[in-house]
């Protein structure tokens, strides 16, 4: 698959409107992927509506390119993505959740929490669980961040016993990423370590056990 960064040079010289028209005129899945990669590489916030529209197409390659492009635009893409998440197209909603999970904007916390708790698609639960660990907590007041982290810890520890191993793996990664950024370490660090230890000792998938061991070794190392 053509990478967004690899497409940057090919988009030089084309106006944004030309890049958008190329997406709209693409007459095959391969042409769509190339066109979306070029549009994403432009890193222009004006491309957000078109990139979000692509999420609803039946073209996983183009959707991945659109997600990468939206994630590279960061918080500017979040309001429009959250509107898409409320839409009726589940496929587009799933890709939008992946995008907001990559961005880490706390405005996406409610949807990420709900998704990690019980979305029927395991890949979407996985993305949400991983995203909960990489929220940029500096964008919230300390009191708000502390309150939100209580719920995040609860949801992620519950996700470590999800029926699907890739969700459990993502939950472990989420807890590992969250632990160094706790507003109130005394309130949650012991809970996180206990959850990781339980995964290491009891999970029946070696990859999940290994990820938990990695997290424990990192978090328990002298600081």
Name the CATH homologous superfamily of the largest domain: Leucine-rich Repeat Variant
Task: Give the strand tally.
Answer: 0
Helical residues, percent? 55-70%
Overall structural class, as computed from helix and strand content, comes to mainly alpha
CATH topology of the largest domain: Leucine-rich Repeat Variant
Cα shape: elongated
Kindly estimate the percentage of residues that lie in beta strands according to DSSP: under 5%
Total count of domains: 2
CATH architecture of the largest domain: Alpha Horseshoe
Helix and strand sequence: HHHHHHHHHHHHH
Describe the structure using short key phrases:
elongated, 13 helices, mainly alpha, Leucine-rich Repeat Variant, 223 residues, disordered N terminus
Describe the fold and architecture.
The chain is mostly helical. It has two domains: 103 residues, no CATH class; 120 residues, Leucine-rich Repeat Variant (Alpha Horseshoe). The chain contains 13 helices and no strands. The chain is elongated, with a radius of gyration of 19 Å. The termini are far apart. The N terminus is likely disordered.
């Amino acid at each position: 698959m053509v990478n967004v960064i690899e497409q940057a040079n090919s988009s030089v010289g084309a106006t944004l409107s030309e890049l958008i028209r190329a997406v709209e005129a693409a007459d095959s899945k391969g042409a769509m992927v190339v066109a979306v990669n070029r549009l994403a590489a432009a890193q222009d916030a004006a491309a957000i509506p078109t990139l979000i529209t692509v999420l609803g197409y039946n073209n996983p390659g183009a959707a991945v390119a659109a997600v990468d492009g939206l994630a590279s635009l960061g918080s500017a893409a979040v309001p429009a993505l959250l509107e898409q998440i409320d839409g009726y197209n589940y496929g587009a909603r799933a890709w939008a959740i992946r995008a907001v999970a990559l961005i880490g904007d706390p405005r996406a916390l409610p949807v990420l929490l709900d998704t990690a708790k019980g979305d029927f698609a395991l890949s979407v639960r996985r993305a949400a669980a991983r995203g909960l660990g990489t929220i940029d907590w500096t964008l919230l007041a300390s009191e708000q961040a502390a309150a939100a982290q209580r719920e995040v810890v609860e949801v992620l520890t519950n996700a470590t016993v999800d029926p699907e191993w890739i969700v459990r793996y993502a939950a472990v990664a989420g807890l590992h990423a969250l632990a160094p950024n706790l507003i109130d370490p005394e309130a949650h660090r012991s809970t996180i370590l206990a959850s990781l230890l339980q995964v290491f000792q009891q999970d029946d998938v070696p990859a999940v056990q290994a990820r938990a061991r990695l997290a424990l070794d990192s978090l328990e190392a002298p600081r």
